[in-house]
Structures are given as C-alpha cells and as structure tokens.
Amino acid sequence: QVQLVESGGGLVQPGGSLRLSCAVSVNILIIDAMGWYRQPPGKQRELVARLTSGGSTNYADSVKGRFTIARDNAKNAVYLQMNSLKPEDTAIYYCSARNLGHDYWGQGTQVTVPS
Questions:
Q1: Using CB atoms within 10 A of its CB, is residue 23 exposed (0-12), middle (13-18) or buried (19+)?
Q2: How confident is the model over 56-76, as pLDDT tens digits?
Q3: pLDDT tens digits for range 43-53
Q4: CB neighbour burial string for 69-81, b if at least 16 within 10 angstroms, e if fewer
Q5: Which of 53, 78, 100, 115 would staple 87 via disulfide (CB 3.0–4.6 Å)?
Q6: What is the number of alpha carbons within 13 Å of residue 27 lying toward its C-beta?
Q7: Is 102 helix (H, G, I), strand (E, B) or coil?
Q8: How far apart are CA 74 and CA 14, in angstroms?
Q9: In whole angstroms, how far apart are CA 5 and each of 14, 79, 105, 114?
Q10: Weakly modelled stretches of the chain, pLDDT under 50
Q11: For residue 100, how many other CB atoms are within 10 A of its CB?
Q12: What residues are paired with 94 via a beta bridge?
C-alpha cells in the first residue's frame, strides 16, 4: 500500500509560481513511476507530468517549458514546480504512483489562477 499526501496548492496570480509537494509513504526508489495529474473544473483528469524510476520524464504539451517534475529520494517526495502559471492551469492537482501494476492517488490539492 502506497499513501500519497499533496501540499502546496493555493491561489496565485497569472505569471506566478507554485511548488506542489507529494509525500510518499514508502521508499520512493521502489516506485515504478510517479506522476502529477490535474482535473480542471468540469473536465476529465489529465496527465501533467510523469517521472519513471529510471529518471525519464514526460509532460503534457500545455505545460512543457513551464512545469518541472522532480523527486527527492532521501525525503521520499516528489515535487511539481509550476512557473508562468495561467488561468487554464486552474485545477485540482493529484499526485500518483504506479507500482507493480497498481495505481495510487493522493487526495488532491487545489490550484487557482484567476483570470
């Protein structure tokens, strides 16, 4: 069982930055892949960024060059650095972990960028 707890969401003006954190309850080195997803109001959940155990990353086209996913193995944590935020980034952001074919999710953290 993997438990994930997000933090760091909030209200930020357009052009601003936020860093989301995800605390992982197990040794992060055993996790196959970590990811950040988001669900905008009235829309489906979508992948934002993904980081595999081997260090490969992929990003949604809409966030490339603005968002960065990273992990701290010593702290068993994953981060999402979000820069140049736009109103369309407004969503609930979820941390995810995939391990041995199972997907785990955090409770989500709200990010709001007013227009």
A1: middle
A2: 999 999 999 999 999 999 999
A3: 999 999 999 99
A4: bebeeeebbbbbe
A5: 115
A6: 2
A7: strand
A8: 33
A9: 26, 11, 9, 25
A10: none
A11: 8
A12: 37
